[in-house]
């Protein structure tokens, strides 16, 4: 099922690139899945990591995910999917609030997703400096700091994982 999810995600994100780069978007879900696989051997959770952005960023529907990958994978994906009709601040606030009561599986998925994003941001931040924030919809570095640090505070139960430790170290490096 993991191979099927990887192929599905690759087709869904075909032609898309990471913000401000020439890196194919599929690199992000693949990296997210690798991070999850280090923390859990749950095949459905790894599939959800591969598929975590398909509803949010492509034409894929929740129903299509249910049909192709089952109820649990679809529910895990939807638990992390943001409502793009809302503002950046509303979406990020909703994510932070949701993590206060989220399942451990959801927290693992969010950690992997945000760690992948933060790795990319940190790499480019060290190359570009504060100019990097111009590539995002939210251009205020302090808002990104609020979000990433807020995520870290709510990933209770994951502190023992190297991925969590890397995440918090990168938060300190990028945001102080």
UniProtKB/TrEMBL annotation:
UniProt keyword terms in alphabetical order: Hydrolase
The record's listing under SUPFAM superfamilies reads:
HD-domain/PDEase-like
User: Which residues are listed as membrane-spanning?
Assistant: none
* Gene3D superfamilies, A to Z: Hypothetical protein af1432
Residue span, HD domain: 25-118
Q: Care to name a GO molecular-function term for this sequence?
A: guanosine-3',5'-bis(diphosphate) 3'-diphosphatase activity
Query: What SMART domains does this protein's entry cite?
Result: HDc
Write down the CDD domains for this protein, in alphabetical order. HDc
Pfam families tied to this protein:
HD_4
Organism listed in the record: Lacrimispora algidixylanolytica
- This protein's source sits in the domain of life called Bacteria
Q: What is this protein called?
A: Phosphohydrolase
């Amino acid at each position: 099922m993991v191979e099927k999810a990887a192929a599905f995600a690759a087709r869904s994100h075909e032609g898309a690139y990471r913000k401000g780069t020439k890196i194919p978007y599929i690199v992000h879900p693949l990296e997210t899945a690798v991070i999850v696989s280090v923390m859990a051997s749950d095949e459905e959770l790894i599939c959800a990591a591969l598929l975590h952005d398909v509803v949010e960023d492509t034409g894929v529907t929740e129903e299509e995910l249910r049909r192709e990958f089952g109820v649990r994978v679809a529910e895990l994906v939807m638990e992390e999917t943001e409502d793009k009709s809302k503002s950046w601040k509303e979406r990020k606030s909703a994510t932070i609030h949701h993590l206060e009561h989220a399942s451990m599986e959801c927290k693992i998925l969010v950690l992997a997703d945000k760690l992948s994003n933060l790795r990319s941001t940190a790499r480019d931040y060290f190359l570009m400096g504060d100019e990097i924030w111009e590539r995002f919809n939210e251009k205020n570095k302090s808002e990104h700091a609020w979000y990433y640090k807020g995520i870290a505070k709510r990933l209770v139960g994951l502190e023992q994982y190297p991925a969590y430790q890397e995440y918090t170290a990168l938060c300190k490096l990028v945001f102080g």
